[in-house]
Specification:
single chain, mainly alpha, 434 Repressor (Amino-terminal Domain), 63% helix
Amino acid sequence: MRILQDYRKIIREKREKKGLSQSALAKLVGVSQPAINQIESGARTPSLALLMKICDALEISMFGEDKEDE
């Protein structure tokens, strides 16, 4: 599914752009590093609540736009 692939790519790109490791992002959103790895690789689909936390931590909207551009 293209949308699912896109959000995984966006999460990974934004995390790397911010200089965050998977462990650092995991700590920010309250999950384990393997959970972030599984989300980015597609092995796990995050709940809506977790996806919202990730978007907030990475400062992106649920639609993939930078919050600073809003």
